[in-house]
Structure formats: C-alpha cells, structure tokens
Backbone:
C-alpha cells in the first residue's frame, strides 16, 4: 500500500451518496458511520489496519458557517468551529474504535474540512490515550489552531502528512495573520505555474487531488 495515494480513495468514498455498505471495502471486518450535525465520518477495520475518515464540506450551509468560526480560539489555541465539531463526534468515535483491534495501525484521514477534523481527531486520540501512536493524512486542509497547538501536536507520536495539490487555496486558510499555523509535514503535489492564476479553487476539488495522485503514482 502507498498510503499517500491509497488513503485518498477513502476520502473520495466519503463524498459518495449513499455510503455505509461494507461491500465498498473488500475484506472489511468492521464498519460504522458516524453522522453529526454538520459532519460525517466512518470507521473501517481491515486485517492489518483501521481507517477513520472524515468528509469535507459538502454544500451544507452549517458546515460553511462553522468553517469561518475563527474569531475566538477555543482554550486559547484551537479553531473554535473545528474544535466544537469534533467534540460532538468524539465519544462515538472512541466507542467505535474500542470495538476494533487497537493494536493495529491506525490511519486518520480527510480532505478539506475533513482533513482539519482528521488532525483534531488525531490530537485528541493521543491526548486521551485511546492510541499510543497513529498516522494522519490530511489533503487540502485548513489550519486548526495557533502556534501553541502546532508545537504540542508536533511533539506527539503522530506521523502527520499534509498533502497540498498545486495552488490549492484552502491550506492558506485561516490566514497566518490571525495566528493560525499548520501541523505535521507538508507534501506538495506540483502543478503548472499557470494554476496559480486560474486554478486555486479547481486544485482543491477531490477530483483534482485524485487525478494528480494517480499521475504521481505512475511517475
């Protein structure tokens, strides 16, 4: 398995309607969908690993409003909207994970808003000792907190990769001028320079990430 490529397929599936059929995943041992007010994630366990995948903003006005809830930092370091959204799902996520084999490798993934929630989930799973270590892959995600949050996150046993496709504008939000910082390491998928002028939104779309990752995998 090439995680940076193969795990994005889970993100693509999260946008499918309807979702929830175990037949989508060959060899799936456990599957559970968690649907919150503005958000959605699923947990899928396989022979060698488990995946927690968060869906990005999918046209829901409540989620868009929540994306821009940045005026106040929760506990002085977290994006208020992402913090509140994850906490609504936290207990059910932890309960479901405890029904899986926690000795297996855990991947927490998401695209866009889902990537931000994936990082928030990774932080709290370690903080609350649900897992001792895990991997997080976030595609085109916005930042979730300030320098204090970033420094604490980066000291945790979380192997976090933030994937940016070309000139995707979302990873630049919320702006650094408001104190927000990114966690983990960044992997940039190059695109032609003209994308900087015309494709900042297009480069963010799940389809654009999928196509670029497929080409990257062939190279």
Residues:
């Amino acid at each position: 398995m090439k995680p940076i490529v193969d795990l994005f397929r889970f993100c693509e599936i999260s946008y499918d309607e309807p979702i929830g059929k175990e037949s989508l995943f060959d060899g799936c041992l456990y599957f559970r969908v968690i649907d919150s007010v503005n958000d959605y994630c699923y947990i899928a366990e396989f022979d060698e690993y488990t995946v927690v995948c968060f869906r990005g903003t999918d046209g829901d006005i409540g989620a868009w409003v929540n994306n821009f809830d940045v005026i106040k930092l929760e506990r002085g370091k977290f994006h208020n909207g992402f913090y509140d959204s994850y906490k609504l799902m936290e207990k059910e996520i932890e309960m479901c994970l405890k029904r899986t084999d926690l000795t297996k490798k855990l991947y927490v993934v998401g695209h866009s808003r889902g990537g931000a929630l994936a990082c928030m989930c990774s932080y709290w799973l370690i903080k609350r000792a649900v897992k001792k270590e895990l991997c997080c892959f976030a595609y085109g995600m916005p930042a979730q907190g300030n320098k204090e949050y970033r420094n604490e996150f980066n000291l945790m046993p979380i192997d976090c990769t933030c994937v940016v496709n070309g000139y995707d504008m979302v990873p630049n939000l919320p702006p650094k001028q408001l104190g927000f910082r990114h966690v983990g390491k960044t992997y940039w998928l190059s695109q032609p320079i003209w994308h900087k002028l015309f494709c900042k939104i297009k480069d963010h779309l799940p389809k654009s990430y999928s196509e670029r990752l497929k080409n990257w995998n062939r190279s």
Notes: Strands lie at 30-35, 40-45, 49-54, 73-74, 78-79, 105-111, 134-139, 158-165, 185-189. The CA atoms of residues 168 and 200 lie 5 Å apart. The longest strand covers residues 158-165. The radius of gyration is 16 Å.
